[in-house]
Amino acid sequence: MKKKRLIQSFKWIFLVSKRFSRVDRKGRSAATSILATLGIAFGVMTLIVVMSVMNGFQMSFIDSILEISSYHVRVDELASENEASFFNLLNNSKQVLNYSPFYEAQALMTGQRGGANSVLIRAIDPSVYENDSGFHKEVRMLSGDFNLSSKNSIILASSLARNLGVRKGDTVNLLVMSGGSDVNLFSNDRIFTVTGIFTSGYQEINNSYAFVNLDSALEYFGTASKKHWGLKLKNYNSYGSVLHNLKETFPEAKVQPWSVYNKTFFGTLRIEKDMLRLLVGLIFVVVAINIYNGMRRLVFERRNEIAVLSALGGRTWEIKSIFVMRGFMTGLAGALSGLLLGLLISYNTDLVFNLAAKIMYFFQYLITALTDRANLIYVQENSTYSIYASIPARIFPGEVIAITIFGILAPLFASWAASRNVLKMTVSEVLHNE
Question: Which residues sit opposite 137 in a β-bridge?
Fold first, then answer.
């Protein structure tokens, strides 16, 4: 019985709210309602597009760091006698995609034309490029092949190769190299042939990374060089159970997730994103205040109708819900419109930025043609837009859903706050004033 009465109450609330909306389309509240809906729509759209572009910009760095540099999980100081158990544990784990050993050393590299640059030498298994899809995706070959079959072959990052003045087929020398007592600090005999040049999405990697094979590490890095293990997971954020199992099984090993490496850099990106989200989110605050003021005026304008509804048996919460329903419908219409527009723009950012560049160029050309035709030869499209267009937007469903829900809740809360003044005056007072 109670359930039936509740359903009837909601039907009545929806019906009255709908009738009020029809009347308000021709009244003074129409402009407020339309502007509120547009404000929510553009707020949701802007926040989705900004977050998607920011995600794409940041993830281009993060993906390169995780897939090339830090791995998802790194294991150091693993005892050699435990490697068999280590392999067995990883092979039986459903979260681990692949794993591989590597060595690292710092060096001063010189090119055959006299250039010199500090470099991080990483010795890896040559099969990693084919077996690790993430590594293969982020290491984009510009010249040559990722070929480490020869002991003295080397793959250089693009900016490093440019600073050294070397190309594919040239030779480089690890003139000064870190290591233990069995490694010569200075040597002219560590000659490598460049078999390929790659680039990544992170400039620091492009400036300093070089790859050699494991045999080179055993010969040149010295016996004191430590062996590291890099693990790739199906989901790099879900590393908790893998870390727990490794630490529990191999307490002597040092096990660290990707979030520990470049912690300051990742923290800076997170703060940047949070601040941008806060600034854009202020749009909803402005719209909510506008809806609150508009709804208070609407309550005052509808005091006669409210008094009549109350006199006919309408309960206070039901009458309040009429205006809350108005706010909910405004937020729902604006949020869904903004969601569709935001997704449409996010999936076509290259077209949007290129179109914006052409529009800006057109107006700039037109104004220059009308004011100073002699400078028309200097008018060009803004290259910054092409850079923005090259950044692939990354849409995270959780963020999109949260933004949409927030766009609905902002006007809903504002309407609820404004509806508290409903029936602040008694029915008799309202009718007596009339």
Answer: none
Distance between CA atoms of residues 105 and 127, nearest Å = 20
pLDDT at 5: 63
Q: What tokens were used for 220?
A: 């040149």
Per-residue burial over 171-191, b if 16 or more Cβ lie within 10 Å, else e, is: ebbbebbebeeebeeeeeebe
pLDDT computed for residue 101 by the predictor = 92
- List the structure tokens of 225: 């060089």
- pTM confidence score: 0.70
Q: What's the Cα-to-Cα distance from 295 to each of 42, 284, 420, 422, rounded to whole Å?
A: 20, 16, 11, 11
Q: Do residues 38 and 346 lie in contact, with contact meaning Cβ atoms separated by under 8 Å?
A: no
Say how far apart CA 302 and CA 365 lie, in whole Å: 53
- Contact present, 415 and 323 (Cβ < 8 Å): yes
* Partners of residue 98 on adjacent β-strands: 232
**Cβ–Cβ < 8 Å for 198, 158:** yes
d(CA 222, CA 217): 7
309 burial level (CB within 10 Å; 0-12, 13-18, 19+)? buried
Rounded to 5 degrees, φ, ψ at 145 are -125, 160
Q: Band the pLDDT of 188: cuts 50, 70, 90.
A: confident
d(C-alpha 301, C-alpha 27), whole Å: 10
| Contacts of 222-226 spanning 24+ positions with Cβ under 8 A | 222/179, 222/180, 222/181, 222/182, 222/183, 223/180, 223/182, 224/179, 224/180, 224/181, 224/182, 224/183, 225/103, 225/104, 225/105, 225/179, 225/180, 226/76, 226/77, 226/103
Segment (H or E) for 106: strand 96-111
